[in-house]
Amino acid sequence: MLNVAICDDPLYHFCFSQENYTAYNSPYRNNLNDLLLLLSAKVPPTGFGLGSIGQSQNHANGLALCRGDVSTTKCKTCITDAGKEIRDRCPDKRGAIIWYDYCLVKYSSTNFFGDIDNQNKFYLYNVQDVDKPTVFNRKVKVLLSSLSIKAYVGTKFYATGELDLGASKKLYGLAQCTRDLSSLDCKKCLDGAINELPSCCDGKRGGRVVGGVAMLDTNFTPLWRIGNHGYN
Questions:
Q1: Residue 215, domain CATH
Q2: Would you say 117 and 211 are in contact if contact means Cβ atoms under 8 Å apart?
Q3: Residue span of the structural domain in which 146 resides
């Protein structure tokens, strides 16, 4: 896992397969290209989608997820850009994942749909500390635990909320899962991410745990400002 304080788009990526599809000639490449085009068309109306193209060793499986508050237009742009960028960053790899602030795209030659992904994960955090970390950490957990419950019972596995900290300050949070998971696995992933926050983001003004199937975000800054102006 990687701790990073400052990031540009894309946020991060993993080329998690060590197999090259050049070893299997061109069909996998063609199927992958068709799959990424399919996802860029299929996902934006609802913000999530799966796809599989090809047979046997040339079978390409993929999914894409857009952040729950992102417009259809921005969702499509993000997925299209992610599809191009992941092929540049992971040339000829049979499995990879890439995250932007607005979306994630993941593909593999193996069927991963519905599986919890504990391998592809990273942290983001604000370098600034809060004044009372113990109290702050407790309130972060209260907010995110409530959002975990709200997300896993919802049809979109997505929830946002805020918590009044007093002195005209608020804490904002987000929880989201990919919709190929069961509701119970969604909650399991989100609760696991909540438990990881102290190890990466103890007393920080903002923090994220971002994985292949779930994302948590907490910050003093409203979500729309994170999306438009970078992670503060």
A1: 3.30.430.20
A2: yes
A3: 121-229
